[in-house]
Amino acid sequence: RASEHLVQCDVKEPRSVLSWEFVTSDHDIGFGVHLVKENGEKLEVVPVKRRNSHVIPESGFYICEATGTYELKFDNTYNRKHSKELFYSVKVVPPDTEALDS
After folding, report:
1. pLDDT for 44-58, tens place per residue?
2. How many Å from the N-terminal Cα to the C-terminal Cα in the chain?
3. DSSP string of 43-100?
4. Contact 18, 11 (CB under 8 A)
5. CA 20 → CA 35, 38, 74, 79, 87, distances in Å?
6. pTM higher than 0.70, yes or no?
7. Which residue of 17, 41, 59, 102 lies most exposed, with the fewest beta carbons within 10 A?
8. Residue 6 three-state SS
9. What angle do CA 42, 58, 27 make, to 5 degrees?
10. CA distance 16 to 13
């Protein structure tokens, strides 16, 4: 209830692909991605918005132009009544690996 869960991923190579998939057991959840700069400032790269991940699994990706720490934010702070279970998978694929998969 009324909480958030943050997942940090280190991206070591430019043009790496940050991908995610998640589902909630009940009700929607806010989701977005930020690049955390060295000074602690957060730059929003995928806007936080509510996703209906209880209806259909949510998946997506972001091509990381910059290296650094990316933070995935699962936000339930708007919901004081309903807690929920969150199941997620996150991975970072370096650009050279992506070509091998083709």
Report:
1. 999 999 888 888 899
2. 42
3. EEEEEEEEE-TTTS-EEEEEEESS-EEEEEEEE-TT-SS----EEEEEEEE-HHHHHH
4. yes
5. 15, 24, 12, 23, 11
6. yes
7. 102
8. strand
9. 95
10. 6
